[in-house]
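Q: What structure does this chain adopt?
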Amino acid sequence: MDSLITAAGRALAAGDPLGALKRVALRDDAPALALRGIAMAQLGDLVRAKTLLRSAARAFGPKEAVARARCVVAEAEIALVSRDLNWPAKALDAARVTLEAHGDRVNAAHARYLDVRRLLLIGRLDAAERTLAELDPAPFPPASRAAHELVVAGIAMRRLRAKAARAALARAARAAHAAAIPGLTAEVESASLVLNTPAARLIARGEERPLLLDEVEALLASKALVVDACRHAVREADTLVSLESRPVLFALARALGEAWPADVPRGTLLARAFGAKHADESHRARLRVEIGRLRKALRTLAGVNATKQGFALVPRRGREVVVLARPVDGEYADVLAFLADGESWSSSALALALGASQRTVQRALDGLAAAGKVQWFGRGRARRWMTPPVPGFPTSLLLPAPLPGD
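A:
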């Protein structure tokens, strides 16, 4: 490999894409194309970067399997950053196997980290943890160690383990400092901000206040009966009743939890659960049926007693009742939570991450666009949706993932 290619590679490793381009911008041989692609990715021109990397992969000869595999890994990283979650994972796994077989452990590990980050985005935390457990970051360079700790911190945040997340981010900051790559340092600092940003709201006795991730973790470990609007569940310590697939029952539970210890008038419950503005006998009959179902679902945690005006939630053992809500409520809050990371998403990627149909997600995006909350660019399959990051609106509690004890 000639000196210019070597110097360009070192510049990229140090986070200096412009320095790399100065050395290879006018060259069209395979190594130069690959380096130019990586440089353009670091500069944010992902479309051009993808084109260059594919050209480089085709230009490498049949005996240059490692170089082609590195191009595949770089393209996979671009797909992850551009939220192309349907990018073929099998291609990345094949590239990783090739790199491991030829002794390129650092890039093979990077391929695994990309796979873990994708699993994290779509809420498959167990699979992400299993993949991460196969990696020992100790022998890797600082940049790889920082990437490892960022993934560890991301999983800990999603598991609501604030102390573990802080420890991982501290290790990531030290590794990023040793790597001396400004972009990596900025990524660690951005991840750290989540721990100091309200992650949810606590609603209790008619009042509400924001909660940090540490406080959410402490609340879920307390003796309080928590109506969890982030996961559509009711829980007390290690006992959890999921109402994810029963939206009417959860709407009733949340209304009762927000009003506790007072009762909730029947008309209010009808409006919250069924959207009924003018209740008739059929609505009242349906309310009685759904209240009976809620009593049965919550029988180990609380009772639902009838009052003169409506119904009241009565926790077992006299526990406090609180509601844990998203930082921002409203229709399509889940979609907004993903878009709040500032990246551009396709509707198909959002559907995969949310576990919903693409048609449902597209309706949500159209509604948000009409309200001026999101914007799009591109046409057809190339259309991407995004919104500026919303202060105080982290996604850690909103992405689909089990709570501790699930």
